[in-house]
């Protein structure tokens, strides 16, 4: 809907390889979320979520792109799961 309405928004996904308590490889096929964004009419950027400077630059670029093209942009930050998602894990 954001792409259809040309909403300049940045979606940020912290991908730690888990969908709550199940590894993402058991939840869906593919190499992540960023590769799905073009199918929804969005630009996408994948970045090393453990690199503060890379995340800053990617987010800044995504913001500029969203404003310039009046379109949503998906940023997927690949990182590690440091702790539990909830008390049920």
TrEMBL record:
Instruction: Give me any GO biological process, just one.
Output: branched-chain amino acid catabolic process
Catalysis: reaction(s): N(6)-[(R)-lipoyl]-L-lysyl-[protein] + 3-methyl-2-oxobutanoate + H(+) = N(6)-[(R)-S(8)-2-methylpropanoyldihydrolipoyl]-L-lysyl-[protein] + CO2
Cite the InterPro entries for this sequence: Alpha-ketoacid_DH_E1_comp (IPR050771), DH_E1 (IPR001017), THDP-binding (IPR029061)
User: What cofactor does this protein call for?
Assistant: thiamine diphosphate
Among SUPFAM superfamilies, the record links this protein to:
Thiamin diphosphate-binding fold (THDP-binding)
The protein's GO terms of the molecular function aspect are: branched-chain 2-oxo acid dehydrogenase activity
Query: Which keywords describe this protein according to UniProt?
Result: Oxidoreductase, Thiamine pyrophosphate
Q: What is its EC number?
A: 1.2.4.4
This protein's superkingdom? Eukaryota
**In this protein, which residues make up the domain named Dehydrogenase E1 component?**
1-89
| UniProt enzyme class | oxidoreductase
The record's section on Gene3D superfamilies has: 3.40.50.970
Q: What does this protein do?
A: The branched-chain alpha-keto dehydrogenase complex catalyzes the overall conversion of alpha-keto acids to acyl-CoA and CO(2). It contains multiple copies of three enzymatic components: branched-chain alpha-keto acid decarboxylase (E1), lipoamide acyltransferase (E2) and lipoamide dehydrogenase (E3).
Give the family, as the similarity comment puts it: Belongs to the BCKDHA family.
Q: What is this protein called?
A: 2-oxoisovalerate dehydrogenase subunit alpha
């Amino acid at each position: 809907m954001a792409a259809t309405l040309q909403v300049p928004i940045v979606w940020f996904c912290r991908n730690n390889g888990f969908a709550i308590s199940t590894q993402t490889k058991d939840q869906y096929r593919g190499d992540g979320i960023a590769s799905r964004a073009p199918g929804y009419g969005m630009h996408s950027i994948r970045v090393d979520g453990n690199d503060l400077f890379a995340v800053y630059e990617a987010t800044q670029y995504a913001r500029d792109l969203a404003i310039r093209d009046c379109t949503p942009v998906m940023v997927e930050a690949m990182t590690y799961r440091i702790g539990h998602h909830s008390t049920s894990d």
